[in-house]
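Consider this:
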Amino acid sequence: MHPLIQFLEDRLSQGLPGRKAQVKMAPEPVDGGEIQEMEPSAEANASSVLILLFPNEDEKMELVLTLRSHDIDHGGQISFPGGRAEKNESLHQTALREAKEEIGVSPDTITVIGELSELYVSHSNNLVIPVLGFTNTRPEFNINPAEVEEVFAIELHSLLHKKNITIENWDLHSYTYRVPYWDIHQVPLWGATAMMLNEFLDLYREFLNKNS
């Protein structure tokens, strides 16, 4: 098994970086806008996403991202495969089902490693659990164009380079926000996906430090 996966299997049973890591990539109000609500409402929808990892030909780990179709929620944004849980469905099952529906990766090919910290996405009222999964080789993708415009993979190490992180002021919901994002695609990787990803990258940094 890849050393990173072995590390994660042990590490996920301990305390996680959690909100401290997530908020580092959260938009910050500049001129009176609201700070992102982190406490879930009682009516929040149970949801999950799949952070899918695989080794490339050089045995360096990559993760899978999608560009959502423009005519669905959060359309035109980079995200992980995922969505709301169906009745009597575990959040692991939700993540695997959504990956099958969105990008055509069979659940039978994915080993679930564990979960990261939950993240409440207030504007959609979703309480999202990131589920970590692993495949031994690059998956065969078959995208559902009704939900996904593009699927691509990015090497983990490239996400650690400061040159790939940009901070800009954006106008959002009639206010100006300071928005950090990864500049790794023609579309910025920001918002909830970036917040979940940053917690995972904190664990990846721990792995690198431990093995340096």
